[in-house]
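Input.
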Amino acid sequence: MTTHTLTINSTTLPVGVTTLGPVNVGSNSHAGISIDRTIVGGLNSVSASSAILVLIQTSVDGVTWKDLCGATWPGGVIVTGHGQINTSSVDTGDVDPAVTKVKVIATVTGPASIAIAGTITVT
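Output.
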């Protein structure tokens, strides 16, 4: 199985919608995005009134896109019983083998733009 990775270099997402990708893929079974919350201007350094809503979409033709899964990543430092959360991620689970492209729609809500760095990976 081939792994396809799109590196998201440190970039600042403005309030509103940004498309990341697409990543060209072959016959794969999972897609996901993972970002570092700790970078300067990242999720851990903005208030809880800001968030990133992520939506992973797939396509068999690069024209028509299907929503596969999503998540909301809130701003602010998040601490659980296991310590501080420094990475936010979401994985699709199984992907239709006919899929040839994967992209992420990232929507920043709240008063502040948010910096991200990470990867979109399809395996």
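The beta strands are 4-13, 16-24, 31-36, 51-59, 66-74, 79-80, 83-84, 87-91, 101-109, 114-122.
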